[in-house]
Amino acid sequence: MFYYFDREEYIVEPPVWSQTTKGIWMAHCVGIEPCTLVMDLEGTDGRERGEDDTAFEKQSALFALAVSDIVLINMWCHDIGREQAANKPLLKTVFQTPLENLEPVLREDIQKIWDSVPKPQAHKETPLSEFFNVEVVALSSYEEKEELFREQVASLRQRFFHSIAPGGLAGDRRGVVPASGFSFSAQQIWKIIKENKDLDLPAHKVMVATVRCEEIANEKFSSFSANEEWRQLEETVQTEPVPGFGRKLTSIIDACLSEYDAEATYFDEGVRSSKRKQLEEKLLQLVQPAYQFMLGHLRSGTLERFKEAFDSALNGGKGFAAAARDCTKYFMSQFDEASADAHIDQANWESSKVRDKLRRDIDAHIAAVRAAKLSDLTTMYETKLNEALSGPVEALLDGASDDTWPAIRKLLHRETEKAVNGFSSALSGFEIDDITKDKMLSRLEDHARGIVEGKAKEEAGRVLIRMKDRFSTLFSHDSDSMPRVWTGKEDIRAITKTARSASLKILSVMAAIRLDDSADSIENTLALALVDPKSGTNANRSISGDPLASSSWDEVPSSKTLLTPVQCKSLWRQFKSETEYTVSQAIAAQEASKRNNNWLPPPWAIVALVVLGFNEFMTLLRNPLYLGVIFVAFLLIKALWVQLDISGEFRNGALPGILSISTKFLPTVMNLLRKLAEEGQRQANPGPQHNPPVPAKTLRSGTNDHDDHSSSASSGITSSENGTEYSSPSAHQKAQ
């Protein structure tokens, strides 16, 4: 009889009579229902075939038993005890694998069959009940008692409906193959049976579960890869952060794993769990790049926001260390919250590496900004020191005196203290340790000293120019800073010595750096060796050799030396050679001035003139007309002298004076005669509207012309200045 099972019910078809043995048939229950083996043992054919001629029945029985949970044997009661008709060989084959017992009336035969079945060594003494729960249900004849038969079948059907309930027909079944794997399982079982191999059902179920769970896992992985929500999430996260990334991806993965669990729930638990773990690992491996993209966006975004907030805090006047500490704490917590939102529940990934990288980036940015800020602060205060020291130090060195270096030390101390206090106050916001802070302040102090020393070295390179400028200033100007005129009364030797001594002061001041309040003998050594070498020699007779023949100064370290004694001696020699010309020019000018101011002949010449010219003098006294002519000639000569500026022309030398006078002599004489003629004509023809200021005006115009270096103007000035002298003889002549 053939039984067909589905999800809803078992349908028992009426028996089909046949002339041949139907063998063993089985039906599989889909879903949670058990598999049932139906064995139809009716028939009369094959009785003489014997026990060993039933290979197909054995294979069929073994196959059906392997794939079924319940064995239903349908027998006629009058067949019990028969060999072939009762299919005892077939039952023997069934009992080689788990079978159910018959009623007590069959137990003896069944036990005999079980005892005769070959069994593994480990189960030779194992009773039948260890493997089979045997129940026998007697059904009435369908032909004779159809109604009762149907009632009994309906009752049996109900037992099958509840067969997997506790105490049911298959309530203790284990390792059931799900419907989705039944086809593959059955094929593999039949293949093993046909090859006459040992049938290891537990291992077979593991194999079926492995194949089917792997197929399900692959299907779910492919389904996940093609999931539109996942693909959109993956594409978006490559360019920008996705809000709720972890929650969305967790939901997608969870749905995929839930589908796997639903389809693989009836397979072997160990295999199912193993394949589920593999599927989960594959899914996580697939989504890990997206997760890393998300963390990368979170890290870069957090870093950029940190930079902006940090710069704003600093620009707002907040202390550097406080701003760095507060911003770091806030944005690291922001990253922690964002990374928690991006966490995938199925993964045990940690964002600690990305977090550490973010912290390193933040610390690196803080360090860079800190270095830049400290550099700017240092540069600012160094610039202030440079502005406060360079100009004043240069001016003090230019005006070298005994107070130069004390003034420089005082200036350096004042400006350095001011800069250090300001710099120390500015550094307080950085919360720098005391050792580092002291080092930075010390470097600022060293920088201030370096400015002074650098400026001193720079001025030392121009010491010769400074010396010559001072010498020129003192030598060419008097105490009132007026240009000196060499009239012959000045003591050029004393002036030269004074100017050279002042120049030597510059050399002594610039010879060494004196930022430490320590005395030295550089100035005395230079004065004795250069300005007054004779007195220096007398005072140091006990000392042999030249005191400047050395490369170092006594009591002055080489690091503080700007000009060595040898260099000072060489500079002084060059200085003297370059200023000798100025001194010689002054001497020459003084001598020329003396010559120009002394026009009287020597006394002996005057005596000779008086003695030898006595007769001529008496002649002039006897004839006053000669005296008038001589007086007029004197006036003319005096006018020419003034107009031609003979003394001034000869101041530059005899030959240049002669050449200049020769070019101006004739125009000056002609202009003088013209003026005299005009004056005589005006006096001979006086008009009623005589205007005395007119000639004066004409003469003043001549004065203006003299300013333009005109010869006629010169004559006009002479006539104006000496008008009385000219008019007096004319009036005297008219009176005569």
From TrEMBL:
<protein>
    <submittedName>
        <fullName>Protein ROOT HAIR defective</fullName>
    </submittedName>
</protein>
<feature type="domain" description="GB1/RHD3-type G">
    <location>
        <begin position="1"/>
        <end position="173"/>
    </location>
</feature>
<keyword id="KW-1133">Transmembrane helix</keyword>
<feature type="compositionally biased region" description="Polar residues">
    <location>
        <begin position="721"/>
        <end position="736"/>
    </location>
</feature>
<keyword id="KW-0547">Nucleotide-binding</keyword>
<dbReference type="InterPro" id="IPR046758">
    <property type="entry name" value="Sey1/RHD3-like_3HB"/>
</dbReference>
<keyword id="KW-0472">Membrane</keyword>
<dbReference type="GO" id="GO:0005783">
    <property type="term" value="C:endoplasmic reticulum"/>
</dbReference>
<dbReference type="Pfam" id="PF20428">
    <property type="entry name" value="Sey1_3HB"/>
</dbReference>
<keyword id="KW-0378">Hydrolase</keyword>
<dbReference type="Pfam" id="PF05879">
    <property type="entry name" value="RHD3_GTPase"/>
</dbReference>
<dbReference type="GO" id="GO:0005525">
    <property type="term" value="F:GTP binding"/>
</dbReference>
<keyword id="KW-0812">Transmembrane</keyword>
<dbReference type="GO" id="GO:0003924">
    <property type="term" value="F:GTPase activity"/>
</dbReference>
<dbReference type="GO" id="GO:0016320">
    <property type="term" value="P:endoplasmic reticulum membrane fusion"/>
</dbReference>
<dbReference type="InterPro" id="IPR008803">
    <property type="entry name" value="RHD3/Sey1"/>
</dbReference>
<feature type="transmembrane region" description="Helical">
    <location>
        <begin position="625"/>
        <end position="642"/>
    </location>
</feature>
<feature type="compositionally biased region" description="Low complexity">
    <location>
        <begin position="711"/>
        <end position="720"/>
    </location>
</feature>
<feature type="region of interest" description="Disordered">
    <location>
        <begin position="680"/>
        <end position="736"/>
    </location>
</feature>
<keyword id="KW-0256">Endoplasmic reticulum</keyword>
<comment type="similarity">
    <text>Belongs to the TRAFAC class dynamin-like GTPase superfamily. GB1/RHD3 GTPase family.</text>
</comment>
<keyword id="KW-0342">GTP-binding</keyword>
<dbReference type="InterPro" id="IPR030386">
    <property type="entry name" value="G_GB1_RHD3_dom"/>
</dbReference>
<dbReference type="InterPro" id="IPR027417">
    <property type="entry name" value="P-loop_NTPase"/>
</dbReference>
